[in-house]
Write a structure and sequence with these properties.
alpha+beta, two-stranded antiparallel ribbon, 9 helices
Length: 279
């Protein structure tokens, strides 16, 4: 019996080591390098601050609206400029990408429908995607009390690359972004999006991809889950800011709070359906 127990323990340890090695190798092989010409910004260079907002199963990017509008205008991107103009009353925009069916109908963990989740992840060829755009007036920690937030400083050129990639993510109809309806919370809207959602391309991969366009190296395998993406980006940010005159950046876990009733209030909560439209 003791011999069998030792053999079983050895086999279990061997499997754990093999799986760990395989996952580490896969993460290394699929890692996407950054662009040192874009990130981090050079000392003294003007930078644009963006944030990753990560929740239980989803992540999005919090972007300064004015900087996004300027980048769209300079690039001649009328679609992205139209989106920023629609939310002109908000100093920041939270933008996320996801499966059209799941994203629009499952706003909370309590509303989770496993059939929708499995269909979104495992439909051959992927499923249609949407973009969710929210106007945010409050400070990030107040607006998203349940989220982990990672702050990143991008070079101006890197931010323009991110804005260009974001503009391409909006599906066009007649030269305009296609609005699908009200969003989930605060002043928000859903838009038709380019791309197909699947297990290999989830919302967190999309967020990481935009940041990679801005020059930040990312690890897609690790970034599959929000928690992995937070760790990946927090490490990148801390490494980029590790100089003697800089402060390291780390993700912040924030406590829950009551839901806001409408736009213009101090909070944009992630609980429950949206109370109003953006116009």
């Amino acid at each position: 019996m003791r011999r069998l127990a030792r053999q079983a323990a050895f086999l279990a340890l061997t499997v754990i080591v093999a799986v760990t090695f395989a996952l580490s190798a896969a993460a290394w092989l699929t890692a996407r390098p950054g662009d040192p010409r874009l990130y981090p910004p050079a000392p003294g260079e003007a930078a644009v601050t963006v944030r990753l907002v990560a929740r239980t199963w989803h992540s999005g990017l919090l972007l300064p609206r004015d900087a996004l509008a300027r980048a769209a205008a300079e690039a001649g991107d009328g679609v992205l400029l139209e989106v920023t103009e629609r939310f002109r009353a908000s100093p920041a925009l939270e933008i996320g990408w996801g499966d059209a069916g799941f994203y629009r109908t499952v706003p909370t963990l309590q509303a989770l429908d496993w059939r929708l989740a499995l269909r979104a992840l495992f439909t051959p060829g992927g499923r249609p995607a949407v973009l969710h755009v929210v106007g945010v007036a409050a400070e990030p920690e107040t607006a998203f009390p349940e989220a982990e937030i990672v702050t990143l400083r991008l070079s101006r050129a890197g931010f323009h690359r991110l804005a260009a990639a974001l503009g391409r993510a909006f599906a066009r109809r007649g030269g305009h972004p296609e609005i699908l309806g009200p969003g989930l919370y605060g002043p928000s809207l859903f838009y038709a999006a380019e791309g197909r959602f699947s297990l290999l391309t989830v919302c967190n991969h999309w967020s990481a991809g935009l940041l990679n366009d801005a020059g930040i190296p990312v690890t897609p395998l690790l970034d599959t889950l929000p928690q992995g993406l937070v760790l990946d980006l927090a490490w990148r940010a801390a490494t980029a800011q590790a100089g003697p005159s800089r402060e390291p950046v780390s993700p912040r876990g924030l406590s829950a709070g009551p839901r806001s009733s409408c736009p213009g209030s101090a909070r944009v909560d992630t609980i429950g359906p949206g109370c109003c439209d953006a116009s």
